[in-house]
Amino acid sequence: MSSITDQQRKLEALLFAATESLDLRTLLAYLSLEDDDHRGKIEEDLQVLQRHYEKRGVHLVNVAGKWAFRTAIDLSDLLERHKVVPRKLSRAALETLAIIAYHQPTTRAEIEEIRGVTTSKGTLDVLLETSWVRPRGRRMTPGRPVTYGTSEGFLEHFGFDSITELPGLSELKGAGLLDNNLPIGFNVPLPHDDMALQQDELPLEECDE
Amino acid sequence: MSSITDQQRKLEALLFAATESLDLRTLLAYLSLEDDDHRGKIEEDLQVLQRHYEKRGVHLVNVAGKWAFRTAIDLSDLLERHKVVPRKLSRAALETLAIIAYHQPTTRAEIEEIRGVTTSKGTLDVLLETSWVRPRGRRMTPGRPVTYGTSEGFLEHFGFDSITELPGLSELKGAGLLDNNLPIGFNVPLPHDDMALQQDELPLEECDE
Amino acid sequence: MDLMADKDKYQNDDDWEGQEQCLPKNASDSSFIVDIEGFEGPLDLMLALARTHKIDLTNISILFLAEQYLTFVDKARVLRLDIAADYLVMAAWLTYLKSRLLLPDDRDGEEELSGDELAARLAFRLKRLEAMRGAGQVLLEGKQLHNDFFPRGQPEGITVLRKSLYEADIYDLLTAYAAGRLRKVVSVVHPGHERRKVWSIKQARKQLEKIIGFDCDWAPIDSLLAGFLADPVESRTALAAAFGASLEMAHEGVIELRQDSPFNPLYLRRKGENE
Questions:
Q1: Do domains A6-73 and A91-197 have the same CATH topology?
Q2: Are B135 and B125 in contact (CB under 8 A)?
Q3: Does C147 touch chain A (CB under 8 A)?
Q4: A78, A132, B39, C150: least CB-packed within 10 angstroms?
Q5: What was the pLDDT predicted at B25?
């Protein structure tokens, strides 16, 4: 039996008990440890735990910069009965979600330009309701349209560590398909879901007067 | 790292994801194993797992024949995070506190008479919660109203050696806190917070029959 | 030109049969129904057509695609009049594109995009939509929480116990006390228990008439009122009322007043017949 340190036990207990995934800062706070001095040590412990669990039925995963225990993916069949049948997204909603994920931050007009059709309010509402999509801010263009992006919930749900792990991202990027203009310019933007607003984004409230 | 069998992995995942404790029969059903042939094997596996977890932050426990993962009992403190939230007293509370400090021992009716408004129960509760105010006893008047006074905590918090250090009329005036056109009869009483009850006070319990 | 070659190629295997769910089942069938509502906009329709006719979007086979689109919309228009405007706008644009692609480009130096550039732009838009559609599908097929991996079923949860720490300093306390007391004092009027004695002018006149003798000698007002001035509370009101009354009486010509200079004693006397 592998030995375990006191700190590792505590981390294990916290991550097991938590109802949501926990980031390093929260873990440090729960352990009443002042930030940066212990950061490295805790990270090390988390990796020890991760290695310990990697062959087991439960894994310690790091998603969206947060840690959580999850059942091993290869055992998904076994857990059939726990499956939450998600309300199936309509094709329009799925397409819109993909556009938001890959092109974020993006506005409704941009989504419509890519889909070649007007987006019904319902489609965006459904996505906001899944909480995978969030309004980010407002684009600094006439009309100050709201910009949309994905949330941490999106990363957690699809099991990505960061938005750059989106499948096929580099291929799409290489083909210039993530650029909103003709692939003449080579500056293809990468999607990013940073909390911080982009240069051309304003805070949401700004226009609410 | 201790090796783990496939069956053990499955048990781990099942018990982890389960929303309730699982008995042996249920576990066997989930694993699609016909009853009694595998019973012994599964029991053995559960014990292997139990041993594996006994030193860790999470335990595999068997309660009334049902199995479940639980965070280690000795770490239960960890799951209660204490958070201190600094709060400001409302004006009403501050005023009531001041009146209690100067006019103690005083009753709720007296506080209301001085403030000219009824005191909400919440205000006194908040003050009792600060532990700067304490119920002292009961006034020997009809209704036996509770008398309030300040505690040692009050002296400590506000940095007084004794309650007589509370500034009097001339100091308050000197500090510009009192209008100079004081009406006749405006005086600042001499408070006292002796532990001993006053002549007109009864012990708190007296009336509790 | 590559385009024409493509066109020929595709015309050869022009089969509409059983290709796409929303496309007409059989072009020659009289019960042919064009379900244009099954499409999410012109781009979607074009992608479906491209799939049906195996048009490779990476090649410039846009001209052929445009023709398919126009044919489709025309057929739809024959059968149904309520085709959404954006399909018609796209049709008009594709007709324009067709003419630009077929006619030799003699617009050198103009700012307008050439037919090939317009076609490339359309091809790009189609590819981009197709890519996003594929991406959505990949997301859907990927591992998802609660479907492929699961969180703990019975998390104990970490409870946060909030404890309030109240803050106040001595200044707050004193300010509150002073403000509270003063507010109360100002807001409450204490009616005195003893009613203050106030002389009315009428009352004072009555007294004066009694006191002022008929001897018509000048007498200082103080001495006349001496009996009432002993009480400090009463003296003020008596003096004030008497003064008022004396002015009234002087005005009526009942008495005369005399004061030698300011602040000197005020003398009164009855106006006698001896004048």
A1: yes
A2: no
A3: yes
A4: B39
A5: 87
Asked whether the predicted pLDDT for residue C193 surpasses 60, the reply is no
Kindly list the residues from chain B whose CB atom is less than 8 angstroms away from the CB atom of residue C149.
Answer: none
Query: Looking at the whole model, is its pTM more than 0.80?
Result: no
* CB-based contact, A207 to chain C, within 8 Å: no
Smallest Cα–Cα separation from C182: which of A188, A105, A43, B98? B98
Which run of H or E residues covers position C251?
helix C232-251
**How many residues are present in chain A?**
209
A24 interface with B at CB cutoff 8 Å: no
Q: What is the residue extent of each domain of chain B?
A: 6-73, 91-197
According to the CATH classification, is domain B91-197 in 2.30.30.230? no
Does the distance separating the beta carbons of C140 and A18 come in below 8 Å?
A: no
B184 vs C: CB within 8 A: no
User: Which segments of chain A have a pLDDT < 70?
Assistant: 1-2, 35, 85-87, 180-190, 206-209
The CATH number of the domain covering residues in B6-73: 1.10.10.10
On the CB side of B6, CA atoms within 13 Å amount to 4
Q: Which residue of C has its CA nearest to A82?
A: C146
Q: Say if the Cβ atoms of C163 and B82 lie within 8 Å.
A: yes
Rounded to an integer, the average pLDDT of B140-168 is: 86
Per DSSP, the three-state class of B49 is helix
Instruction: Show residues of chain B in contact with A79, CB under 8 Å.
Output: 13-14, 17
- Say if the Cβ atoms of B55 and A30 lie within 8 Å: no
Please, which chains are in contact with B (at least 3 CB pairs closer than 8 A)? A, C
Both tokens of B126, joined, read 């908040």
The interface pTM score, or ipTM, of the predicted complex is 0.64
Q: How far apart are CA B21 and CA B25, in angstroms?
A: 12
Phi, psi of C173 (to 5 degrees): -65, -50
Say how many C-beta atoms besides its own lie within 10 A of residue C83's C-beta: 16
- CA-based radius of gyration for chain C: 56
State the chains in contact with C (3 or more Cβ–Cβ pairs under 8 Å): A, B
